[in-house]
Amino acid sequence: MTKFDQFLQDLATQDAVLVTVQSHRGSVPREAGAWMAVFADHVLGTVGGGHIEWQAQQEARQMLEAAGPAQLRRYPLGPALGQCCGGEVHLRYECVSTSDLPVLHQRQIEQMASWPVVALFGGGHVGRALMALLQTLPLRLQWVDSREEIFPFDVFDRVLCEHSQPVHAAVTSLPPGAHVLIMSFSHAEDLDVVMACLQRQRTRADVPFIGLIGSRSKWATFSHRLAARGFSEAELAQVTCPIGIAGIAGKEPEVIAVAVAAQLLQVTQQVTHRVASAHND
User: Fold this and answer.
1) Distance, CA of 59 to CA of 17 (rounded, Å)
2) Confidence tier at 80 by pLDDT (50, 70, 90)
3) For the whole model, what pTM was predicted?
């Protein structure tokens, strides 16, 4: 369950004040859209921590007691709150209750629609460790494996688990812009998924990242086999193998998961910035 899901569940039994970063300027701790739900006895989410969060909680609880109307407040972080960020944040405060659940559900759906898509092929030890981490991040997730019984029961509801036999058949139905991570239980399946991704790139060119778990020697073997099947050097260059940011040498599933998740966040942010730049041009 995500924090927002927990927020909606708690809201079914008690009112709250939803505090949202409406806009900002300069250096600030959180981006627009970040939120914090302030209940009478607990808080979910964060708008940045530090003095601004403490101040926001105090004002939200006063508003909760008075059941006041929605408000927008400006916070110059340096002059008003003594924070070193130095930027400026506008926070929106709104009292919410059970009657607001449909609107908040819709707001959640609209927000998630803008999240990057990640397709993870493989439900082994590393796949499970990685999905446990990815499902806490602002990503739309699709988890694919040829073994139907492999998916855990405690996966978040927003993770789409797909049994595909053969596993590479799922590549054609991935949404445009999906970032693909490949770590199945066999090298044969890995190779099939890589080939399917490269074939899709030839016809649609809409897979911005193809990441393959493994060593440099594994990729050397795969490259030879893929070249024998007619893929060019330029096409093979679209595959990242090994995956994970450099400098993290541990081989424990959780360590690999952190390295891969960090690289994935770098890639998705780069893609988002390119799309935004192209739109502005």
Assistant:
1) 10
2) low
3) 0.82
